[in-house]
Amino acid sequence: MKNTQAGDIFSAIVHVPFGGIGIRTSAGVILEMVYLPRHFREKDAIDAAADKAAKQILRYIDKPDYRFKLPLAEVGSDFQRRVWDAIASIPRGEVRTYGQIAKFIQSAPRAVGQACGANWFPLVVPCHRVTAAGGLGGFSHRDDEDGFPLSVKRWLLAHEGVDGY
User: Which of the residues are catalytic?
Assistant: First the structure.
């Protein structure tokens, strides 16, 4: 599949320092945000929801304290939403471990990791702020140390002032 065809599923693609973010919308809500490698072409927003998301992503890139205010689709199980709410409460510049989140919501670290990987709205629900007890951990259901997802997680943590990863 060519990049232009792959990009057609997105309502906008925003270039950011680590690559891109694809935004999918429908009926005025954000359906999904996806981290994309650099080879995806930037794409202007095709609707108001995608335009709002693109502008807010760029505000976050400019100022990591920016708080998103986007119309998000209702997705995920009750458990996933509990995990995502806990993640959304982690302040910029801080991290929590899978175990800490699990203890907070009375669950198991592995289940928390699965919910992190199922996050439909990265950046808005900052799952990059969740790490393993002994290091960086995985990201987007991947743990390849030199792979794209973990490079995104490292960039985001550094952008937010978290050292050591």
Answer: 127
